[in-house]
Every structure is written in C-alpha cells, then in structure tokens.
Amino acid sequence: MIRQCLSSFALILAVAWPQPGGAAPRSICYTVHPGDTTSRMAARLTGDARNRREPWFQVFDPVALKVIPKAQYGRIRAGWQACIAEERLGRVPLPLHQPAVVSARVGPTGPSITEKLRALVVAVGWWWVPLLFSATAPAWIIAQDYADRRLATSRTLERFGNTFVREFERPLIQQACDKAPLRSRVRVIPHRERLEVSLAPNAGRLYPNLSDHRKNVEYDVERVVTLLGDRRFVCGPLAARGAWVVIPFRLEASLNQKGRR
After folding, report:
1. H or E segment at 151?
2. FRET pair for 134, CA 20 to 30 Å: which of 88, 115, 183, 248?
C-alpha cells in the first residue's frame, strides 16, 4: 500500500513538473459543411489533399469533444471542424467563404491533461507538496502498522502450527523407521487470526483418523495443546476432510495483544 502511494505521488510529480519550451502551438479550425470531405478540406486549406494524413491536420467533433481517428476520415459529418496548425496557414491563402475560428489546440491540437496540470501547478505554486505529505503521512503510518501487525500475526500462527505438528508426531516416530509417521499441512489465515493444522497418516499407517480413532486423536490434540502451554490459542472442534484430520485454532485477540507487550 505504501509503495502504491509513493508510486502515485511520483507519477503526479513527473506529470506536473513544468517542462522547458514555449507556449503550445495554435491551430485554426474551419467548420465542415455538407458535401465536404477530408480530401477537399485538406486541398482547400493546405493546397494538397494528401496533407489530410499529416499529424498537424485533424478533424474534431465539437459536440462529443473528441478527435476523429484518421481511419474514419471517410465518414466526416457537417458541423465538425477541420483544424490545421497555424504556421501552415502562411503557405496557402485563407478561404473567404468560411470564417476561421482561432483557438488553442483541440484534442491533440488542444491543451492536454498533462499541460493543464502543469499550468495549474505553475499557477498555484508548490505549497501543496508539503501539504500532500502531511495529509498522507498518517495513512502511510497506519498502513505500515497494519502490515507489521499482519506479518507478526502470520509468523506467530505459522510458528505455533509447526511446533504443534512436531510435538504431535514425536511419540509416533519409531527409531528403526526413517519414514515420517504422518503428513501435515499448516494453513494460516492472518487477517482472521486463525490457523488450520491438517494431519493424515503416511503410507502404510492408519493413525490419525477420526473414523476409527477419534478419542485417541482428541486426546493427543489436548495433550499437545497442554504441553505447548500457549494460552493465546484456542482449539476448535476437529473435522475430517478425506484422509485429513483438520484441527482449527483461533488466536484470541486480547491474549495476543498481551503477548506483544
């Protein structure tokens, strides 16, 4: 979360930081009349119909406030505007039958969001930078504290689960056998402060299982919990999932807070 905040702030600075250079070039736009095509407009305004493909020749929809892609130039509508860069007008005479509308660049020929943001930053100054940091600092501190607490909870749950498995397995280990007596899985759920320890017999073994040895499994679970003596963990009812015996634990919040002090 903190990395995302820093990345967003860096992006804002990169976009808003004023760049060297003069003012944005201006364009002159002419209204498209019925029967006009981009080829005719380009030929009339620039002297060459092929200039409709140039980046400084754009068709703009003033109602939808969008620039028409050049791939759609075959279907321009009356009321749209054909805009060309102002410096190109000196090379051809202006048509007299259409009034010219002089404006800042529209769409690609108008001020971009980046340029507007830069202009705003230059206008108001950089006083907002410390204000932004002071406003976001508490959120960063809260986020960091949450991440630290969640990591600590995850480690506490995992440590208890692994210790429980070792103590449960210890009486089942035979000195003459190098194969582990059972299979185990430890699943931690830190945001809920819960833990699931799953045990199953290894190949060639029958214990532990709840169908034939429920009393023995419950006894061993209680024995290990008592042996570990960690009162922060409360054991829930056992459950069977296929060959696995699932032993749920809940980390008591009040006791967990005491353990951190």
Report:
1. helix 128-169
2. 115
